[in-house]
Design a protein that fits this description.
alpha/beta; globular
């Protein structure tokens, strides 16, 4: 009981803080986009049409960013940042240059190693301020010969335009804008996956909160993924308008600007509703994590998706903030990745 009360209080207090200090920062006006007029895919209501055309593999430009502290922390990895242009163009140039970080394992010589190279692509939640969670992931995985790649999602972290805060513009616009942000994020991830696959990497995905929604959506579209591990994913971005916590008020604010009829809105949001579709990889390769005391994301939706897809589901007696920012769940995910990879390598 005390555990639940504490987790609930943390979520509610931090939710209120994020809403007012990030999503309502400087009381910026809504971005009123008419992207649907030039990109009819936005209003298709169909998964493959919405995320079309299939993007080209990203042309990654690497920029070494190793610092002395990083060299000490990552003795088994070379850490480099990279960037590539997004296939979707918005009115914010900072957002349209995709940023990422690559922890390249040096534990095994790439010339001498004849086994496949696993690379884990990780996406963070709607307000990303740094790389702490993925540093933890890399610290555990790179000594075992596994690369870790982090991609900044649209309008987040280093893709935040000047004058805004990370994540503010993910929910800071009307329906056209929010649909564009969702489409851009998945297509950017798809482009990155194709680029790494073309270089011989086997790809697994890890997502946290909003990033988990992106990785699960990728599993609906992309062939030859090894696994997807999703931490507290908002699996239904239509029903979360009624069921989500405090932070969802920012999304409601944008959607409520000149809203369509409810039935039409549900149809338009169908590509954002993961339970309406089936994944392209085996159920055994998908692992969902639910925070039992989550005040941001409806836990019962995650449980229902796990039952529908017959995937693995792990419960954590935590709130959303603890599950997505603390070390416990990410550490379990790292161990699960190692176990999955060892089993996969043994069977090959």
């Amino acid at each position: 009981m005390i555990r639940k009360l504490w987790s609930t209080c943390v979520d509610e207090v931090l939710g209120f803080y994020l809403l007012h200090r990030f999503f309502y920062y400087r009381k910026q006006p809504l971005i009123l986009s008419n992207a649907g007029e030039t990109s009819p895919e936005l209003f298709s209501g169909d998964l493959t049409t919405f995320y079309s055309p299939v993007p080209q593999p990203a042309q990654l430009t690497y920029q070494p960013r190793l610092r002395p502290a990083s060299q000490t922390t990552f003795s088994a990895a070379q850490v480099e940042d990279f960037q590539f242009p997004s296939s979707i163009q918005t009115s914010f140039p900072e957002n349209d240059l995709v940023q990422g970080r690559h922890w390249k394992s040096t534990a095994v010589s790439r010339e001498q190693d004849s086994t496949p190279r696993l690379t884990v692509i990780a996406i963070d939640g709607i307000v990303q301020m740094g790389v702490r969670s993925f540093n933890r992931l890399a610290q555990r995985l790179t000594p075992c010969g596994i690369d870790v790649v982090m991609m900044d999602s649209p309008f987040n972290y280093r893709r935040t335009p000047a004058g805004y805060r990370p994540g503010q513009l993910i929910a800071g616009g009307n329906l056209d804008h929010q649909l564009t942000v969702a489409r851009q994020g998945v297509l950017d991830l798809w482009s990155l996956i194709l680029a790494l696959q073309a270089k011989g990497h086997q790809i697994g995905l890890v997502g946290i909160s909003h990033g988990a929604w992106m990785t699960l959506t990728a599993a609906l579209l992309i062939e030859q993924l090894d696994f997807v591990m999703a931490i507290t994913p908002p699996v239904d971005l239509f029903h979360i308008l009624d069921e989500g916590g405090t932070v969802v008020n920012a999304i409601r604010r944008g959607v409520n600007h000149d809203p369509p009829e409810l039935e039409q809105l549900e149809q338009l949001c169908a590509p954002l509703m993961i339970p309406q579709w089936m994944p392209r990889l085996p159920a055994a390769a998908i692992h969902l994590h639910v925070a039992d005391f989550d005040r941001f994301v409806p836990s019962f939706r995650i449980e229902a998706l796990a039952e529908q897809w017959q995937t693995k589901l792990s419960h954590h007696p935590l709130g959303h903030i603890e599950a997505t920012t603390g070390p416990k769940v990410v550490s379990q995910v790292a161990e699960d990745i190692l176990a999955f990879w060892q089993l996969s390598s043994a069977s090959n």
